[in-house]
């Protein structure tokens, strides 16, 4: 209501805070589609398997960053990336 959102706990990892914030965007067109949310969460899961400190080191992408475009060259070249599997 009135664009107010509940506060997230301070111990919530920045990666999840960033995703939740995107889902709460006032403009529905700026919210990620469900398949993108699933892909992001699967990527987080894979990243945690490879790096248990993933959430401690996570830096959210800038809102103008196109994640698919940024990681596509790595996927094509065969370099392993959690987002390639999502």
UniProtKB/TrEMBL annotation:
* Transmembrane residue ranges: none
Show where the Serine-threonine/tyrosine-protein kinase catalytic domain sits: 3-41
Q: Name the InterPro entries on file.
A: Kinase-like_dom_sf, Ser-Thr/Tyr_kinase_cat_dom
Name of this chain's protein: Serine-threonine/tyrosine-protein kinase catalytic domain-containing protein
Give the matching Gene3D superfamilies.
Transferase(Phosphotransferase) domain 1 (1.10.510.10)
Q: Which GO terms describe its molecular function?
A: protein kinase activity
Its domain of life reads Eukaryota
The coiled-coil regions, if any, are: none
The species this protein was found in = Acacia crassicarpa (northern wattle)
